[in-house]
Amino acid sequence: MTEHEHSSQIDALLDGLDTLISLPEVAIQVNKVAENPDSTAEDMGKVISQDPALSARMLRIANSSVYGLSKEVDSISRAVTLLGMSEIRNLVLSSTVSKAFDGLLNDLISIQDFWHHSLYCGLLSQQLAKQAGLRTSDSLFVAGLLHDIGQLVMFNRESEKSHQAILMLTDVIDDMDMHEAEERVFGFDHMQVGAQLIRKWQLPALFEECVEFHHTPDQSTQYPQEVAIVHIANAVAVMAEFDAVDEEYEIPHIDASAWEQAKVNREELFTVISDAQNHIADIEQTLFGQSS
């Protein structure tokens, strides 16, 4: 199947989803303001203030223990000044994206478990990026959070085929990843679906590439280090959630070149995992109003 045919099939899968999954208009406007180099903190404050519930959520987050600011933040423009335009954009996306999928029901996975894993991947991506000295570390939280959104679309729109792909993971003799099973059943995978959805939402290219190549980091062209970090974070999150990571254990499904590309210190990986485990409940409660 050609790349054009893949794209057409994915478009058909996404067609009509706008009534079920769409970013709130305020999130789209926030992204536009963040992408405009001439925007000010006041510009961002005006956009977010159009949504009282989002404004309250942003102030609650800015004043939470996650940031540990010394003085109370009493306005959105002040929060933007203290935390930065990009960080506020990332917080808005993080706190609204899960709600965008509220209408996308499925019988194959627990939505709470899905977002717990996604949040874990986001936290690990952010911490590994900080360890590597990347200035995009805050954006990698969002990239990690979004990495599997294509699965939710496929589970909802093609539940029978998705179930076939899940069964294939247990039926085959050879070790297989979910994206490989999807490729056999659908002819494409959740990475491609997620990336196409991000393009529809007109989100930054960094998010698109991290979603599209998080299982195949060697195919990344624009952001190879960031993609390698999300790739590692995803694999580590799966193992860490089952307490199956220890210093002597080789984590499966990590591309051989990813460690070098990511430029992270493997010896500090377990400190990063412990830090994510200690903070995930607080951040889950802060962003989503729930904890595991």
Task: Give me some keywords for this one.
292 residues, 0% strand, globular, mainly alpha, single chain
What does this 3D model show about the protein?
- This protein is mostly helical and 292 residues long.
- The protein has a domain of 79 residues.
- It is built from 16 helices and no strands.
- The longest helix has 21 residues.
- The chain is globular.
- The N and C termini lie far apart (41 Å).
- The relative contact order is 0.12.
- The model has no long low-confidence stretch (mean pLDDT 86).
How do the strands and helices of this protein lay out in sequence?
Blueprint: H1 3-14, H2 25-35, H3 41-49, H4 52-62, H5 76-83, H6 85-100, H7 111-131, H8 137-146, H9 149-157, H10 159-171, H11 178-186, H12 190-201, H13 205-212, H14 224-241, H15 258-262, H16 269-288
Helix pairs in contact: 1-12, 2-3, 2-6, 3-5, 4-6, 5-6, 6-8, 7-8, 7-14, 7-16, 8-13, 9-10, 9-12, 10-11, 12-13, 13-14
Strand content: under 5%
What is the 3D form? globular
By DSSP, the count of extended strands is 0
Low-pLDDT runs: none
Q: Encode the helix/strand succession as letters.
A: HHHHHHHHHHHHHHHH
Rg over CA atoms, rounded to whole Å, is 19 Å
Helix amount, in percent?
A: 55-70%
Total helix count?
Answer: 16
Largest sheet: none
In short:
With 292 residues, this protein is mainly alpha-helical. It contains 16 helices and no strands. The chain has a domain at 22-100.
